[in-house]
Design a protein that fits this description.
119 residues, alpha+beta, binds zinc ion, flat, 3 helices, three-stranded antiparallel sheet, 2 domains, 6 strands
C-alpha cells in the first residue's frame, strides 16, 4: 500500500524481502514486517508522504483495548554512542540510528507494535 502511494508521487522505492540482497546505502524502515527501501536522496520527501498517509489511515482504526479512534504513531530514534556501537548499528541497520515505531492510544495509553488488521 505504501509502495503505491510513493510511486504515485514519483519516488523510487521497493519492498525488501529476505531474498533481496542490497549493498546500496539505502535507508530501511520496517513497515508491517517488510522493509521499504527508499532512495536516500528522496528520503525526506518519502517520510513526509508516508507520515501524512499514516495519520489519515490511523483515524480509521479503533484501539483494540478501548475502541476509541485515538491511535497515534510514536517514533523513537535510538542513537548509538561510541565507535563499536556505531559500527554495529551500521552493520545491522545500515544506518547510524535505529528508528523504532509503535502506536499508542491517546485515550487509554494502550501500546501496539503493529496495527490490527481488519478481517
Ligand atoms: Zn485505547
Amino acid at each position: 500500500m505504501q509502495l503505491s502511494i510513493l510511486k504515485e508521487k514519483g519516488i523510487n522505492c521497493y519492498i525488501k524481502d529476505e531474498y533481496t540482497i542490497t549493498i546500496d546505502p539505502l535507508l530501511s524502515p520496517a513497515i508491517g514486517g517488510m522493509k521499504l527501501m527508499v532512495d536516500k536522496r528522496q528520503w525526506d520527501l518519502a517520510t513526509k508522504i508516508l507520515d501524512a498517509s499514516d495519520n489519515e489511515f490511523l483515524q480509521t482504526i479503533a484501539c483494540p483495548n478501548c475502541h476509541q479512534h485515538t491511535l497515534n504513531q510514536v517514533v523513537l530514534v535510538q542513537k548509538p554512542t561510541g565507535f563499536w556501537e556505531k559500527l554495529k548499528f551500521r552493520l545491522v541497520n545500515g544506518q547510524e540510528a535505529e528508528v523504532k515505531k509503535y502506536f499508542q492510544c491517546g485515550t487509554c495509553g494502550f501500546k501496539l507494535e503493529e496495527l490490527p488488521t481488519e478481517e
